[in-house]
């Protein structure tokens, strides 16, 4: 019976990885007792965007096995690491950038991190916008101070199920930083390598706007899994987003997708939809890169940020929060695809060395 069930599961593909669950090592348990099949699937991320489809496909396939009349599907999750870990204990470093300011990049970064943590991932958030740090305020920790642990490493602050570090928690409130490139580079290295991040599935990095010193320092300091570009639909933002994409291309950082923020506005009194900045412009960029989602303008998102609670936690049922949750899951899916494909490519490269000529 077990062999028949495993054969049935070999017909079920992961919708994103396009390989069967058995060959991907995603079947953790497959047992049949008195006609009841108990299947545990180990997903490649707890934020899997197609979990429901996988469950439906598994149930449908196993029910075809003679003698099985009930299928119970449960899930675990283990994030596959990058081929070359970015930092000790950190599986993936993900950059959130934009070509210009004012597109809601930090709000998106905070909600992405909070959403991934909400789904069960171990998440860190680095506020690398040294000149204009806002992550601490959005997480309700503006008055907190970063301390050192017993190993004299910076101890990230914990809030809403994730760990974060921001310059706002290291410098006096309201004080402007007047730093040149070398000082920025040193600060970025300290944030990454002299902080006790611990075991993380994802370290989200909120970049400053543009294509400057911080972006360059990050790509030179650690192995980055990929980047997310945040833009609005209007042409002026898309032009700058294209510049940011070109910067990551030159730095050999894969662009995992585009987030169109402020995509539209739904009037709360009438329900009418208004395209205040145009709409769908990001799909022009999405012809080359995945469009991870379109996030509408929502008063709750702004209010929740000022209150120090990410919208995906404070008001998860709103249209904007649901869009942000979807973006986070789509991003996690893109990371899984990249990690699995790189691991497969690496194994194929090593295959000739393992062959013995007889």
Task: Write a structural description.
The protein has about 350 residues and is α/β, with parallel strands linked by helices. It folds into 2 domains: about 1-75, 2-Layer Sandwich (GMP Synthetase, Chain A, domain 3); about 90-330, P-loop containing nucleotide triphosphate hydrolases (Rossmann fold, 3-Layer(aba) Sandwich), CATH 3.40.50. Helix content is about 35%, strand content about 25%. Helix 3 (about 105-120) packs across helix 11 and helix 5 packs across helix 6 (about 215-220). The longest helix has about 35 residues, at about 320-355. The protein starts with a helix and ends with a helix.
Oligomer: single chain
Principal-axes geometry comes out as globular
What percentage of residues falls in helices of 4 or more residues? 25-40%
Gyration radius, in Å: 22 Å
Find the CATH topology of the largest domain: Rossmann fold
Mean residue pLDDT: 89
Number of strands: 14
What is the number of independent domains? 2
What's the gist of this structure?
By secondary structure, the protein is of the alpha/beta class. The chain contains 11 helices and 14 strands. The mean pLDDT is 89.
Question: Top keywords for this entry?
Answer:
14 strands; GMP Synthetase, Chain A, domain 3; FSCA_dom_sf; 23% strand; three-stranded mixed sheet; alpha/beta; nine-stranded mixed sheet; MIP18-like; 358 residues; 2 domains; Rossmann fold; single chain
Layout of strands and helices, then pairs:
Elements: H1 2-9, E1 27-33, E2 36-43, H2 51-62, E3 70-77, E4 90-97, H3 105-118, E5 123-127, H4 135-138, E6 147-148, E7 154-155, E8 157-159, E9 162-166, H5 181-193, E10 200-206, H6 213-221, E11 226-231, H7 235-250, E12 255-266, E13 273-274, H8 282-285, E14 291-297, H9 299-307, H10 311-314, H11 319-354
Parallel strand pairs: 2-3, 4-10, 4-11, 5-9, 5-10, 11-12, 12-14
Antiparallel strand pairs: 1-2, 6-7, 8-9, 12-13
Helix pairs in contact: 3-11, 5-6
Binding site for ATP: 99-106
Family: In the N-terminal section; belongs to the MIP18 family. In the C-terminal section; belongs to the Mrp/NBP35 ATP-binding proteins family.
Domain MIP18 family-like: 3-73
